[in-house]
Give the backbone structure.
Amino acid sequence: MSNENEDYLEEYKQDRLSHETIDGDLATLNLGPTHPATHGIFENILTVDGEKILDAVQTVGYIHRAFEKIAERRPYNQITTLTDRLNYCSSPINNIGWALTMEKLIGCEVPKRVDYMRVIIMELARINDHLICNSVIGVDTGALTGFTYLFQQREAIYELFEEVCGARLTTNMCRIGGFERDFSKTFWTKLDAFLLNFPKVFTEFDNLLSRNRIFMDRTIGAGPISAERALEYSFSGPNLRAAGVDYDVRVMNPYCSYEDFDFIIPVGSQGDTYDRFQVRQEEIRQSLSIIKQAIAKMPEGPYHAGLPEFYLPPKQDVYEKMEALIYHFKIVMGETPVPVGEIYQSVEGGNGELGFYLISDGGRSPYRLQFRRPCFIYYQAYPEMIKGQTISDAVLTLSSMNVIAGELDA
Amino acid sequence: MASKLTNEEVYTLLKNAFGDKVGEMLTPFDLLTVEVAAESANAIIEWLKKDEKLQVSYLTVLGGVHYPEDKGREIAVVYHLHSLVNNFRIRLKAFLPIENPTIATITYLYVGANWMERETFDFYGVIFAGHPNLKRVLNDDSMDYFPMRKEYQLEDATREDKDDRFFGRE
Amino acid sequence: MGKVTLDAKLETINGQGFQLTSIDKAIGLARANSLWPLPFATSCCGIEFMATMGSNYDLARFGMERMSFSPRQADLLIVAGTISKKLGPVLKKVYEQMAEPKWVLSVGACASSGGIFDTYSVLQGIDRVIPVDVYVPGCPPRPEQIIDGIMKIHEMVKNESLRRRNSSEYKDMLGTFNIESDGE
């Protein structure tokens, strides 16, 4: 606890003693590391006066897995699996972010079709991410119904991912240069079915909560942050937008042909839980619209770039052609040389600006790879956001910030 | 959205303001990269933030790099800054000797730098002078080394559960 | 009155108006179908566990409607996700707080063996701090696999002898983890 806080507590105590009859004793309450209301392992030691939170001391790092150290030992192709486990609610965005970084480093132009396929996958992942967050806000306000409904839709998205790559959660979906295979016919059928069914369920969910008096009373004014403070804290993503700043990497530094699509960046005004909820709701709608635009404009063409040094050749060729066999061997063994360079590439992840700062010395693995993890950066504002709020607000604030432990602790 | 500033423009302003504290201009992948003297890193970041034209007032990320071969400047602290108004990104690097990796904190400019600096301390042992609470953030307090430095191995050195012969480590 | 049939696996002697079985089996059956799980979900596997609890896979079908977030009222500890060295003591504390009889399900590669994270900060499997009954492989496992693991736990619970938790072997086993048995 900093001195400033101690002074503040002492002042508060004195103030309290002078005004009220009860003695000014404050209680300490452990919220976490394992607590039903924290979705993940977060520890906050709260100083409370009755229900009112005066201070919070955070401890993080409970699932620190040393991603950045592992990345220095892995060939470039194998780092996609690490990115999966950063923000595991929207793994494909992380995968694609890494693939984009590598493509920028080796100077590879991917076909337009790949861009559009990636946009579809990334927007599905964004929907998936926001669905978890918003349905959990519902659970924390006591509305379990929305959660059970939305999880059926999340299963539909998982089925789509399975159709593309075979995995549900940790997709490891993207290859440097494109996709492993083209989207199958079943994928397109299932995607159409999803686009037909999901909006109905989603509207119902929205009707259930958005104008619900109880929900509004619980969330409006809970855990607010001003735009200035949010920027000081380097917020990004939906949490920054809820505070009223329209910063979105997709628009600021477009990647994957995002400039081809029309969409709105929703912004809030108070930066409270309700605004964060509404911003995510609107982003889901915008994502749906982007997916529809991508399907309508989907160009014909190959699903990967001609990049034999990094993109695995077809298995049949490996058996029959010398060249393909050599490339296959080199890629699998991670012996493909890469240019020396230093690169920063960011994508708009589920939680905000997900950045990859890569230093390559030409070796088989990165010299240094740093992930800009939005959760880690904005979670430090949590004590400030819940100061003066009640414990139930603190729980809501935590779930509405969508802090993902994997990304937080790296 | 294209950037409203060019690399040359910003570099010239920076060079005029700080002279020899600012190293040569590099633009890998079109991102202005400047090496700055460690003692004036925080002053430069403050100037970038307060300058009315540049308004580089968003700290994207801060981290460290270890170059064991580069004697006298083994540890690099790398700042990525962003001017949201001009959509202009800049990367600043300050090099520190490994014996005394001390650099001034920028927490008074950006509250969000707090944990990023703690993480850099945790991983590389960089001392951020003036930091309000400089202790490990991700690892346990009892850890007695800085794991991201190149000389330390990835695996836990004290582990007993794995047979070294199966991992090529005699 | 319809005819009441008991679980086929419950060995019984049937007669008119009475039914005999061993008390072990009757209690095992009751325990197995009303396990109260404590989800200790830390990372990716936690999301798959959420899916298992969710409407499509519906864990409630197996008498697990109520998630017990307090270790004191839980029988089954479900550890889903990476456990770091920093978290190890917390996990052990949670296990010690649970009352006997208790079972542990380790979900996913990280909890079972450290998974792909062979690093300085990750515990190489939770069986370094607490005893584990069933391991579920996968990174992360599919909900079907988690359910399969839970079925395995059910089998163990059904067939466990009532005396096991008081036996000296059991206490010795806990002793290897430096955990004191709270059995009488």
Helices of chain C lie at 23-32, 44-53, 88-97, 108-113, 143-159, 168-176. Chain C has a mean pLDDT of 86.
